[in-house]
Design brief:
This protein has 260 residues and is of the alpha/beta class. The protein has helices at residues 20-41, 47-54, 58-66, 73-86, 89-96, 108-111, 114-127, 144-154, 212-223, 240-244, 246-251; strands at residues 135-139, 157-161, 172-177, 186-191, 200-208, 227-236, 254-259.
Amino acid sequence: MARGSNPLRPATRIKGRGSMAETRVRELKYRMMITDLLKVASESHTYQELSVVLGLSPPILSRYMRGHVLPSYSRAQGLYAKLTEITNIKDALKKRIMFDEDGYFDNTPLVNEITWLKILSNYAMEKFAGRRVTKVLTAAVDGIPCSTLVANLLDIDLLIAKDSKEVGIQEFVEETYIPRGSAIRKSLYVPKSAIKKKDSVLIIDDVVRTGETVQALVDLVRNQRADIAGIYVLVTVGDEWKEYLDSIISKYSFEVLIEI
């Protein structure tokens, strides 16, 4: 399970298409992340407070916050440490998640807001550092935005499991399951050629309540005899999923950003 309050440390050790150029690119993305953290920090701190805490003159702070200028990598590391001291990213995101009277919540920050999406994707980079990842797999549709950014950060392919077969594709891998509390069979499909035996797949899901979708994605990968690099869930609701996914949680790296 996900622990700790340091979700955005740069991850330069994820195994993949490693090179010095790739390391420089990841350092650049880390420097750019400071802009996103400043935007989140500005929601709970005044401009003057940030200037004092970070030791930045107002003109420099303004340039960083607007993304007009990027801090050096070494300065970005110092700013990151200070920003994580004054801003609890998980709590900040929790405050954005509002439930309605039926128990559903507005997931706009998870699928629409680019600042939060970049923060969520960097969290995955940090948590799965050091692991071999060749593909990112998610189920349509709300997990796609974050999964796309994660795949981009890792420079690997994105696979989207859909609930229908697309024309033009001859063979599919299919996984069928029955959502709890329903009498309906649902199926997920990916092109058969998309997952190879040599692959190591990172599974991403946006919201987990009971766990059937995660289980289906895991089974889909297993049936292709590919490896599972880990499972990353943005938000879990309640505790029902823990019992249902117990064997998966105990076997694979299972990271949750926010539990509600």
